[in-house]
Amino acid sequence: KVHTIHHHGKYYQSEGVFQVSPSVQRTPTLFQAGASPKGMQFATRHAECVFIGGDKPKKIREQVKKIRALAEQQGRSADDIKELLGI
């Protein structure tokens, strides 16, 4: 839904619809951080990037495998989600 903007600030004024064209992507990139079951369901259904934590390669591999499997269960490709590791 497009909302009319009525802005009268110190540096500029704007009336009407937003004056910047939408990006090609149309929606922002969604990042998700959280390993709860509900968080993982949300991430694998909606997010493009998931933050994961870990300091052991085996644990990291297991998390990535789980994320990719859940994505496929949600009807997405395993490659649709990028995992970002925080150590």
Overview of this protein structure:
There is one protein chain. By secondary structure, the chain is an alpha/beta fold. It has a single domain (23-86), classed as P-loop containing nucleotide triphosphate hydrolases (Rossmann fold, 3-Layer(aba) Sandwich), CATH 3.40.50.300. Helices cover 31% and strands 24% of the residues. The chain has helices spanning 37-46, 57-73; strands at 5-8, 13-16, 31-33, 49-53, 82-86. The protein has a three-stranded parallel β-sheet with strand order 3-4-5, with helices on one face. The longest helix is centred in the C-terminal third of the chain and has 17 residues, at 57-73. The radius of gyration is 19 Å and the shape is elongated. The termini are far apart. 10% of the residues are buried. The mean pLDDT is 89.
Summarize the structure.
This protein is of the alpha/beta class.
Keywords:
87 residues, alpha/beta, Rossmann fold, three-stranded parallel beta sheet, two-stranded antiparallel sheet, 5 strands
The strand line-up of the biggest sheet is 3-4-5
Provide the CATH superfamily: P-loop containing nucleotide triphosphate hydrolases
Secondary structure category: alpha/beta
The 3D shape can be described as elongated
CATH topology (level 3) name: Rossmann fold
pLDDT < 50 stretches = none
- Helical residues, percent: 25-40%
User: Sheet with the most strands?
Assistant: 3 strands, parallel
How many individual β-strands? 5
- State mean pLDDT (0 to 100 scale): 89
Number of helices: 2
Strand fraction equals 15-25%
